[in-house]
Amino acid sequence: MKLYNTLTRQEEELDFNKQDINMYVCGVTPYSSSHIGHAMSTVVFDVLRRYLEFKGFKVNHIQNFTDVDDKMIQAAKKLDMSTADLANNNIESFLNEMALLNNLPAQLYPRATEEIEKIIEIIESLISKGLAYHNKDGVYFRVEKVLDYGKLSRRTLKDMISGSRIEIDQNKENSMDFALWKSEKPGEPSWDSPWGKGRPGWHIECSAMSIKYLGNSIDIHGGGLDLIFPHHENEIVQSESFTGEIPFSKIWVHNGLLRMGSDKMSKSVGNIVLIRDVLDKFSTNAIRMFILSSHYRSPLEYNEDQIKSKEISIKKLTKLLENTGGKVDFDQISYVCQIRQEQFINAMDDDLNTPRAIATIFDLHKDLTRLSSEGIDIAAGQDLLNRLSDILGLDLKNKNIEYNQDEFLEPLMKILTNIRSELRNKKEFELADKIRFDLYNIGINLEDSLEGTNWNIIDN
RNA sequence: GGCGACGUGGCCAAGUGGUUAAGGCGGAGGUCUGCAAAACCUCUAUUCGGCGGUUCGAAUCCGCCCGUCGCCUCCA
């Protein structure tokens, strides 16, 4: 399998000579509800993980929570609660939403505040190596000391300083030096350290957690494109300086960002759509198919019409699973399965090309409907359809039938459709059509078939 | 200002040197049906932002121009 490595700016063959793959994915800062941009990122890495597992690897997947930082402190203050409570609340709903999105849970979800010991160990080591210094504001990393600083984001210190929008901090040796530890300010959560009370800076928590749980040099480190600089750049320089091992991560995978209109969706811009609101409107399958219909490195524009169109696509695929029976034709069915599975794998092997993978699923669908209409048993093909869909985290077996589970509607509709069937049997079509028409006007759609009448609530 | 990405049919989106430019949605026609709906079948870009260039051959490589976006501050 090839994956695009942000560090080398090219696709690289994944030739890990081992069965385990260590994958660290940067999670969220749980200061508020998560938006669908976060959903996009987690779905992408979920699919990467599922595919690697399909290929036979055991994936150690870790996703962190940065549960203390400026935003956390501000938000907690505003809500008059502790940062810990705020984090707990948001983490709980985040994990809940991940499950609803059908993302496999990571093996571990470490939190910055629970890794202070490791964080301090790293900072002490960096100071002792002369790569970090302590002043009244905290501890800072000396970026000038590291020659390859900027290798991930491909920029030089000179470029960064000249283009910098941040005010120059006179207390820092170099304006690009970044905080490893921040000294305590009144009213803020803090921990004891050799440099007095304080809290970790951004970036250091990910180095600590990645190294502690996955080792000095991991296989895949991922996150959104917007984390390349400064977050991942700084993680690299801290980690490699601390462990002395290069690379900190063999491959850096970054997903493109979700846009709202033509702008990036982000909490700070304020143009966000919450995951839970999208989950209210659309099925998990449709949301995932929407996300996976464009390549993970491209930007994706949030578009409800497009998500809606995926509901229809999913329904088509689901419908095919209902076909049963027919004569066994091993040659035909296995030929089709072999071709389509191969195309699916080729697509996924090519830098996780999910749009192409999805296209082969539809090709498989077309093949199978053809064979089925020729009276051939397609059970083996349906099984493949399920397996391939499962790699994308699409659950075709789970029909979203919750609509029809209302305890009053269900028996009521049964009475109505039974009466209507009798009318149709007596050829009293005018009255039967009136029932269908009137129900349609209150939002219930009837579909007659040979097996009986199905109904569903029309979504808008 | 520096670095980077992108512009493919009505919408979304693959394809990055060579048979008919994937796939989904939409649209048109058809099969089925008492009629609908659903499902299925067929059709739906001589053309890839514009202009030049390289090449036997370019959506695909090069140059310029136009347009959109991201990072350089917190961000998935």
Gap between N and C termini: 41 Å
Task: Give the CA-based shape.
Answer: elongated
CATH topology of the largest domain: Rossmann fold
The secondary structure category is alpha/beta
**Low-confidence runs:** 400-404
- The helical percent reads 40-55%
How many structural domains can be distinguished in the coordinates?
3
Order of helices and strands: EEEHEHHHEEHEEHEHEEEHHEHHHHHHEE
The level 1 CATH classification of the largest domain is Alpha Beta
**CATH-scheme architecture of the largest domain:** 3-Layer(aba) Sandwich
The biggest beta sheet is recorded as: 4 strands, parallel
Mean pLDDT: 92
- How many helices? The count is 15
User: What is the name of the CATH superfamily of the largest domain?
Assistant: HUPs
Task: Report Rg.
Answer: 27 Å
Strand order of the largest sheet: 4-3-9-10
What fraction strand? Answer: 15-25%
Total beta strand runs = 15
